[in-house]
């Protein structure tokens, strides 16, 4: 786990130059309480402003393209710190990253949560430090997932809860197994439903077919490997 506060003195902002794109195997959370930041994840731009919370996933390529920060937090952590239930929730996110617009109260609440996490993280004399950090991280992530899913549900209010549930479960399987399951029928079989039902449901919620989502996931991975591996295009 790595936690770093954004701290400024005398009202001055912290400015970050563009960072080099890099790929990592951990989750990455940014809370912008005050300020702004532009990020690129897997060749897609994302804008963070006051009271924004961002989460990216292991395996993604990301870089900071610009930042003008007043107050906030950077938090990174290994997937091994999470129990299976919270991993499942995060993997059901229908977008490529979680980006949440927070109310002032929500922003203050997450600021307090991460501040508490940081106080334990910084105290080498804390008894049961590892267990406390893991528990506090889980609390923080359940609340992040809850805030994101409320926002996601509002954006998909025209769909039934069951169809959204099916689509999110498909998304979970796709994130984990797109390298080995490359046919739509394989996902339908794993989810114990007909291909036509799965395809109609996913397309109704997202606007795109199961096959389209599989292809997009494979192409994202191909672009990552082209840019950040020693493999030739032929090998990829």
General description of the model:
It is a single chain. By secondary structure, the chain is an alpha+beta fold. The protein is built from seven helices and eight strands. Strands 1, 2, 3, 4, 5, 6, 7 and 8 form an eight-stranded antiparallel sheet that branches. Strand 4 and strand 5 (44-48) form a beta hairpin. The two termini are 32 Å apart. The model has no long low-confidence stretch (mean pLDDT 93).
Percent helix, as a range, is 40-55%
DSSP strand count: 8
Give helix and strand order, one letter per element, not per position.
Answer: EEEEEEEHEHHHHHH
Alpha-beta classification? alpha+beta
Estimated share of beta-strand residues? 15-25%
Largest sheet composition: 8 strands, antiparallel
List unreliable stretches of 5+ residues.
Answer: none
Radius of gyration, in Å, reads 19 Å
Average predicted local confidence, pLDDT:
93
Q: What distance lies between the first and last C-alpha atoms, to the nearest angstrom?
A: 32 Å
Principal-axes shape call: globular
- How many helices? 7
């Amino acid at each position: 786990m790595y936690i770093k506060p954004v701290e400024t003195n005398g009202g001055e902002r912290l400015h970050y130059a563009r960072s080099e794109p890099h790929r990592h195997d951990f989750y990455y959370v940014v809370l912008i309480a005050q300020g702004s930041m532009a990020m690129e994840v897997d060749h897609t731009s994302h804008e963070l402003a006051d009271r924004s919370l961002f989460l990216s996933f292991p395996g993604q390529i990301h870089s900071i393209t610009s930042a003008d920060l007043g107050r906030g937090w950077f938090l990174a952590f290994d997937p091994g710190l999470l129990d299976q239930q919270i991993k499942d929730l995060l993997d059901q996110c229908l977008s490529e990253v979680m980006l949440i617009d927070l109310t002032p109260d929500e922003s203050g609440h997450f600021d307090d949560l991460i501040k508490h996490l940081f106080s334990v993280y910084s105290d080498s004399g804390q008894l049961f430090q590892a267990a406390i950090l893991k528990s506090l991280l889980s609390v923080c992530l359940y609340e992040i997932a809850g805030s994101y899913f409320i926002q996601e549900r509002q954006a998909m209010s025209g769909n039934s809860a069951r169809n959204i549930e099916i689509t999110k479960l498909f998304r979970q399987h796709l994130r984990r197994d797109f390298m080995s399951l490359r046919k739509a029928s394989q996902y339908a079989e794993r989810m114990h439903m007909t291909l036509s039902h799965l395809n109609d449901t996913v397309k109704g919620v997202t606007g795109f077919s199961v096959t389209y989502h599989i292809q997009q996931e494979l192409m994202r991975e191909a672009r990552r490997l082209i840019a950040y591996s020693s493999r030739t295009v032929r090998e990829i």
